[in-house]
Amino acid sequence: MTHIIIIGGGLTGLYASIIAVDRAAKVTTVFQGRGGLSLSHGCIDVLDRSAPSRSLARLSDHHPYKLSGIANLKDALSKFRELMLHAGYPFTGKLSKSISILTALGSIKRTSFAPSGIARGDLNSCEPIVLGHFSGFRDFYPKMIQKRALKSGVKIAKVIDLPLLEPPVLRAAYSTDYALRFEDSGWREEIIRMWRPLLPGVKRLGLPAVLGIQNHCEILEELEDSLGVDIFEIPSLPPSVPGLRIERILLRQAQTLGVNIIEGVGVIGRIDGRSRGKRVAGVVLHSTGRTIQLDADAVLLATGGFLNGGLVAQQDHRIRESVFDLPVLHPTNRSDWVGLSLFHRQEYASTGVFVNSRMQPLGLDEKPMFKNLYAAGGLLAGSDRSIEGSRQGIDLATAYCAVNEALR
Amino acid sequence: MSSLSTQVLVIGGGATGLGIAWDAALRGLKVVLIEQSDIGQGTSGRHHGLLHSGGRYALSDPVSARDCASENRILREIAAHTIEDTGGLFVATPADPVDYPDRWLSACSHLNIPTEEISLSAMLEREPLLNPRISRSFLVQDASIDSFDLAHVLVSGIEEHGGVVLLRHQLESLIIDQDRLVEAKIRNRLNGKSLSLSANLFINAAGPWAKTITTMAGVELPLALGKGTLVAMSRRLVNTVVNRCKPPSDGDIIVPVGTVAILGTTDIPVKEPTSLDVEPWEVDLLLAEGDLLLPGLRDSRPLRTWAGIRPLYRPAENGNTQTRALLRSHVILDHEESDGLQCFISVIGGKLTTFRLMAEETVDLICDKLEIDQKCSTASTPLPNESGHFYSLTSRLEKLERQPLHASTDQIVCECELVTRGDIEFALDKSVTGTELDDLRRDLRMGMGPCQAGFCAYRTYAISSEHSSSPPSLNGLHNFLYERWKGIRPVAWGSTLQQMEFSRRIYLDLLAAGPESEIRS
């Protein structure tokens, strides 16, 4: 039985763990903090095009999709959707036609796959839209969305005030505080009673994405059935409730399948094997007051990019890969890392670890550093994911490819 | 075109111009002040917020030093609510000249600048993060002054006494009639309308832009511009202003302001008032110099950077190209004497600490020219006090904790600076149309904390859009995020870069707030 150590607890690491354990590997997943899912929108961005499948072939040779292969991307996506469907959180979408959803700013965002509760807001459907307003929720402003959407040619019929029973009374109430209220069935009964008279004639109702974390699908179904409207969610500021749903499902699934999960522990280095440093024999973990050595047949780095700590930018003009200090190519002057505006393409965003088509990190000689070390997700070079709209697609495709290669 | 006439037209809404308008209004003169953007937008809002004790210039510029010391005492009386009495320290690090402290001490005592030498253990008790290898340490009467608050109360004072402050009004041209400046053509930048203003006297207080104004009048101005870069650290680090006890140079001061500590500053000669770009080496230098005062500073997190332009007087006979060597004292130029152009006065140089004195001298000259016999009373007239007390580090928290949570207006919009929805709505209500997010930031400190507007830019944009009747454009949000980004670019490494990446996730991945998103469908 192959023992694979996966470092990272975000979308890439958790998904890879499930794929690996599915292939009968012994899997140990180690992570220090939380991954990026709670900061995301909870959709799967593959490429910000109206038809991503047509554009995928035209990417540069160093793009993560090109390296992992489009076939792996497709398999990874269907495996992910299968997983989510199995957990009762189905995703909708296809690579040949993007979904257009309203953002919490009233802009239009294209994504490839969205949980069906979000996808029901697809602007390609003509069903008229009404938005619900939760008075006092500081992260959702439907009247502003209505005004802004009109500028992009999207007409929102009206905005309705929807009262909440005992809304979270906090100076800083987050989406998760609202989501917890929705988990309470008695509370839901009350608000259904209050909302029902307010919604005659409404067909499609948009609400902030706070409709429960754990039992979202039942909650959504109950609200729709008892109110007689289609309901869709619009992702709001982090913490992302839709992202947390995915994180929870993946974590549970990994645990159920027998992944050995070690949380809150940092990996501080690798153990070089006896084959002249060509193999990684394991990793060294640092936990409170001691270090632990874990042996492995293969190691997958899924530590993320700059936001999640896989890559670290330093004042001394260097960019480092944080666990194994793998080579990272980057502009030599730090003033070239960041562009003039947040909205521009950023040099730093596409720097990272270089890999071959087997997802093995490459040395400066362009040869794999170690035979059994793999990397996937946010720490890979070759794409400014925010500009491309490709973040989750890259995570899934490269994780899938790396596990395949590691267990071959 | 509408037209207006006044006795005195002041050009420039920084501390200098506002001080002059305040003094003139107090003496009963009819005064109008025009400002091309917002009050305190230029040099007055782009420094470290130090109320000088005078110590800094005791040896290099005794005139400035003496002015600072006396004005420091006056401002503490008339504008107490804009000042945090942090006190100041001058400390000699191992890198500083050994003979300097004694020479400096005797200069201070000669100029009547109060100093008190304290033991190193007393110093470390007061500021535990200071370098234990510091050899000598002196207490002075430095303080931290909020220049935005100061500007606000000056505007209130001017308006209370019948003066008029026109924001976002740009001077287009000056009309001269037989060696006499008679009229100014002004454009309202919000609605594009023109205004013609005639006055008995025109006061050029445009700071780094002063030369643009004199050029319009066809006269020369011996103005040198020195760029000073500042770095705000993500934490306050010290509660006392800390100065290096050595001749003025790059990176010789740390000022605690609100939740942050500000490292100052460089001095680089520049050509244009818009040369505000910060170079990586300036940041590295300020961090390295600051590390001598607070060991470990080099590795702590810089929050953002900005630069201000010092407008300095350089008479033709002074060939010095280094702005650091130019005197900090102010100059009042009567263009009638220097260029034969009547009714035109330029006020240049000086420091925020001495703005009142500059105003007094300027308005004395104005009264002289207008043959009005009115004495200055600004030194004994307290400035209006709207908030009642100084905004301290914990005052917002205290206020929130004391008040019960009533409604959504008590919700926090900016977590870093504890700005509530009510604060934003209040500011929107009392402001004129065309309020930009950046104006709200200057009023409320919204977006100035460690997350640099990641969350509150969206919330504030949404609240102000819901507030206004016109369909909201994204420009306001873009401009605001652009300004925030500009200030963190020079410190884009470590957790700051991490924060920048987080902002991109919010504004690109989640909100699709990019400029092109409006045409997509």
Low-confidence stretches of chain A at least 5 residues in length (pLDDT < 50)? Answer: none
CATH homologous superfamily grouping of the largest domain in chain A: FAD/NAD(P)-binding domain
Report the strand count of chain B. 22
Level-2 CATH architecture of the largest domain in chain A: 3-Layer(bba) Sandwich
Number of DSSP helices of chain B? 15
The SS-based structural class of chain A is alpha/beta
Strand order within the widest beta sheet of chain A: 11-2-1-15-20
Largest sheet of chain B: 9 strands, mixed
Taking pLDDT < 50 over at least 5 consecutive residues as the criterion, the unreliable ranges of chain B are 517-521
Helix content of chain A: 25-40%
Q: Do you know the CATH topology of the largest domain in chain B?
A: FAD/NAD(P)-binding domain
Please describe the biggest sheet of chain A, giving its number of strands, its sense, and whether it closes into a barrel: 5 strands, parallel
Alpha-carbon distance between the two ends of chain B:
43 Å
Number of strands of chain A: 20
Kindly name the structural category of chain B.
alpha+beta
Question: Can you offer a commentary on this structure?
Answer:
The complex is a heterodimer of chains A (408) and B (521). Chain A is α/β, with parallel strands linked by helices. Chain A folds into 2 domains: 3-89 and 244-406, 3-Layer(bba) Sandwich (FAD/NAD(P)-binding domain), CATH 3.50.50; 104-234, Rossmann fold (3-Layer(aba) Sandwich), CATH 3.40.50. In chain A, 29% of the residues lie in helices and 22% in strands. Chain A has helices spanning 11-22, 52-56, 64-68, 70-86, 116-119, 142-151, 175-182, 185-195, 216-227, 241-256, 385-388, 391-406, and strands at 3-7, 26-31, 91-93, 99-102, 108-111, 113-115, 129-133, 156-161, 204-208, 230-234, 260-263, 266-272, 280-287, 290-295, 298-301, 311-313, 319-321, 328-329, 352-353, 373-375. Chain B contains 15 helices and 22 strands. In chain B, the strands form 4 sheets. In chain B, strands 5, 6, 7, 13, 14, 15, 16, 17 and 18 form a 9-stranded mixed sheet that branches. In chain B, strands 1, 2, 9, 10, 11, 12, 19 and 20 form an 8-stranded mixed sheet that branches. Helices cover 33% and strands 22% of the residues of chain B. The longest helix of chain B has 17 residues, at 62-78. In chain B, strand 21 (412-414) and strand 22 (419-420) form a beta hairpin. The chains are: A alpha/beta (408), B alpha+beta (521). At the A-B interface, strand 5, helix 6 and helix 11 of A face helix 7, helix 13, helix 14 and helix 15 of B.
